[in-house]
Specification:
The chain has one domain: Alpha-Beta Barrel (TIM Barrel), CATH 3.20.20.30. Strands 1, 2, 3, 4, 5, 8, 9, 10, 11 and 12 form a ten-stranded parallel sheet that branches. Helix content is 45%, strand content 16%. It has 332 residues and is of the alpha/beta class.
Amino acid sequence: MTERVALYLQDAHDLRDGLDYVRYAEQRGFEAVWQAESRLVRDAIVPMAAYAAVTERLKIGSGVINNWTRNIGLLAATFLTLDDLAPGRVICGIGAWWDPLARNVGIERRKPLVAMRETVEVMRRLLNMERVTFHGEFHHVDGIELDVVHGRRSPRQVSIMIGATGDQMMELTGEISDGAVLNYCVPPEYNVKALELLDKGARKAGRTLDDLDRPQLVVCSVDHDHDKAIDYTRTLLCQYLAQQPHIAKASGVSQDVVAQIQSILGWPATKEQINKAKHLVPEDLIYRITASGTPDEARAKVAEYRNQGCTCPILYPVGGDVRLLIDTFAQA
C-alpha cells in the first residue's frame, strides 16, 4: 500500500531546477507539490503555474499565501486561472501571515479570525460560480462573480486549506476549511492538541476530524552523511527562530536562545550572520522538530508525524540532494 507524500519548495533552488524536481517527484509517486510564500523572496503563484504546466497528476498547493495582500476578487480569479491550467489539481493553502513582516510592509493584522472567516466564505462562493454581495469588516463586494465568458463556467473544485498555528485559528480551521496545513518546526506531539482543536471546530459545522485533510510541513534533511544532514538543518533553524517568532513559540524554544540569535542576525539575514549564530541552535531541537539524518533516520521521524495524525507529510528539503530525499520517500 502506498503512503501519501508531498514535496515542499521554497526559494533555495533555481526555479527551473524546481521544475525538474516536481517532474521527478511525480514519477516517484508523490501526491503533491506545495510552494512556499513567506519571506519577501518568492511569490507562490508563478511557480505553481509552472509546476502545473509540466506535470499531469501532481496536485499543486500554495503553502501558504496570506489573506491580507490580495484583493478577494483577484484571489478567486487567480485560483480559477490555476484550475484552468490544472483542473481539479489545485489547492489553496492560506494563512494569517506573521509579524514583524506584515507590520513592516504596512499590514495591520487585526482580528485575524474574522478576516480569515470572511476570506474563506467569499472565495468559496466565488469559486462556486455564485454572484456574491458581501459586506463584512474586511471584505466588501457588490454583485461580483467570476466573469467566465470563454471556458468552463462550472464550479471549481479548489480545496481551501488553512495554515493555522494558534489555538483559535486551529479551531476555526476545523469549522470552515477543507483541512489544515499543519506547521513545521514542531515536535510530533504538537499534533495532539492541534487535532483536538480541529475536531472541536469541525463539530461546530456538523463534521468530525475525519472530514478534514491534515497535511503537514516537515523539515527534512537527508544525506548519507549524518553530520552533513544535521548541519543543513541547523542553518535553516537559525534563520527561522530569529525571523518567525510564532514558529519559535510553537517549537518550545527558549526565548533566551531566540534573543541571542536575533542579536546576531539582521533583516534580511546574511549567510555570514547565519554561520556565526547557527551554533546556538540546540542539537536536541534538530532531532525533536525535524526529520534530519540518513535516509533511515528521516523515514523514522516522518513516521512519527504520521502516527500523530498527519495525513500527508509535505517534505521540505533544506539542503543537499533533493533527488535523494525524493528517492527516500518514493512510492513508485
